[in-house]
Design brief:
The protein has 453 residues and is of the alpha/beta class.
Length: 453
């Protein structure tokens, strides 16, 4: 199948961040796009506004016999009723990852992989290419604040930016020109079964990178767990061989650092518009990729300094004299640890109240000890109900199970539907809502409670 053969496309799980980006792209090419998702969200409503019909209950009549392709995500269960209609009509089907590869593999692609940081790095790359006025296609796993979109379409594109998702080994469909591996922490063990299998998959991804390009690997990763090709280059904080972020400091509440390449300074005092040492590494990854691709170092650094951020990545929601409220997508213990470190550096001495929505029963079970350890370090940890996503409940694994392992005596459980009723007027310091599920549906209510006169 070629893109030019597609006139009508149907998306199963169209509200997913990666699916919606592809749907928008195909729609921009004049293809008739529609789809199903189980939940109405601001993103699905935006798709409808843009002319892409979305429905939220199984509906056979929504699937035309003339559909050229059904794009689906593994998050859609195999027993979902619409599969029956798709099979009866003998419609061609393709995974989201394969459709993404069909779009970007013909271009020089930056592919961003890693168990953390994919969205931020790909968003930084997309923003920089926009600022550099370079035609490209971009598929980002989040909505960029300035652009209010997760897809970038430019006529005459020679470059592409794509997140390389390790879930379900999706990234093995990509053949990038420059690949980035930001982090390799145990995750998706329901798919891989072991950390070794996950690591092997990242090694396979690295070897799919063009020999004319580069593989960029963060120095935080124990390189002995990966097999890497000869065109690998490392990046990290105080890195001696490769790209390095040095002399990191905080000035006027902003992280500032210098960029070096094997000891030679490329840029002085890059001022980050987003906070955190993890974002310093994300910015360094984006800078290194673009510099290796031949873009001017000064221009790339200046573009990074105007990066607008991504919604739900340390997003400042509300601020008063008594309370600062952020929302963040963190859903892995390592991500929550990075978030806590950043908030402590930005707001030293202030108490932190964190509302965490665990994502997936299997992830909660597999990392229960690690979640409990990091959540215990917040001043006031609040656990709400687990977001199941594609999973069915696992007996004995619920919010109370996780709560029992948290040693902080200030811990509490808050039912999901009651989050909007939180007494924010008695919370001081910093409030965080954390998780990759649908906790963001409470953001506006919490914001209004905080800001009410």
């Amino acid at each position: 199948m070629q893109l030019t053969d597609i006139k009508t496309a149907y998306f199963l799980g169209i509200g997913g961040i990666g699916m919606s980006a592809l749907a928008r792209y195909l729609h921009s090419k004049g293809i008739n796009v529609s789809g199903y998702d189980k939940t109405k969200t601001p993103l699905t409503e935006a798709l409808v506004t843009e002319g892409i019909p979305v429905h939220y209950q199984a509906d056979f009549s929504a699937i035309s016999a003339t559909t050229d392709v059904v794009v689906y995500t593994p998050a859609i269960p195999s027993d979902f009723q619409e599969w029956e209609q798709i099979r009866n009509l003998e419609l061609p089907t393709i995974k989201r990852s394969a459709m993404l590869a069909m779009v970007v593999n013909s271009l020089q692609a930056f592919a961003v992989a890693g168990t953390h940081g994919k969205t931020t790095v790909s968003a930084m790359l997309a923003h920089c290419l926009s600022e550099l006025h370079e035609p490209f296609l971009g598929f980002v796993g989040g909505v960029l604040s300035k652009y209010n979109t997760n897809v970038f379409v430019n006529t005459g594109a020679t470059w592409a930016v794509a997140e390389a998702d390790e879930y379900d080994r999706s990234f093995l469909t990509l053949k990038p020109y420059i690949s980035i591996i930001n982090a390799v922490d145990a995750d998706h063990l329901d798919i891989y079964g072991s950390s070794t299998a996950l690591e092997d998959s990242f090694s396979e991804f690295a070897f799919q990178t063009s020999t004319k390009g580069k593989v960029l690997v963060c120095t935080d990763i124990n390189s002995s767990i990966l097999k890497l090709p000869s065109n690998t280059l490392f990046f990290g904080i105080d890195n001696k061989n490769g790209y390095s972020a040095n002399n990191i400091r905080i000035e006027n509440e902003h992280f500032v650092f210098d960029i070096l390449l094997s000891g030679n300074k490329l840029y002085s005092a890059l001022t980050m518009p987003v906070a955190g040492r993890h974002n310093v590494k994300n910015a360094l990854a984006a800078f290194a990729a673009l510099h290796l691709a031949g873009f001017n170092a000064d221009q790339v650094a200046q573009a990074i300094q105007s990066y607008p951020g991504v919604k739900r990545r340390l997003e400042l929601i509300a601020k008063t004299n008594e309370l600062v409220y952020y929302d963040d997508y963190a859903h892995h213990p390592a991500e929550i640890a990075a978030l806590l470190e950043t908030i402590r550096s930005l707001h030293p001495g202030k108490p932190i109240t964190a509302i965490f929505q665990p994502h997936l029963f299997s992830r909660t079970r597999d990392f229960g000890v690690e979640f409990a350890d990091i959540l215990s370090k917040f001043d006031y940890p609040i656990i709400t109900d687990i977001y199941p996503a594609r999973e069915k409940p696992i007996p004995g694994i619920d919010a109370q199970w996780l709560l029992a392992q948290i040693i902080n005596p200030q811990k509490k459980h808050l039912r999901f539907e009651n989050i909007g009723n939180l007494d924010t007027q008695n919370i001081k310091g910093v409030l965080l809502s954390i998780g990759a599920g649908d906790i963001d549906t409470h953001i506006e209510t919490l914001k209004n409670r905080i800001l009410k006169p």
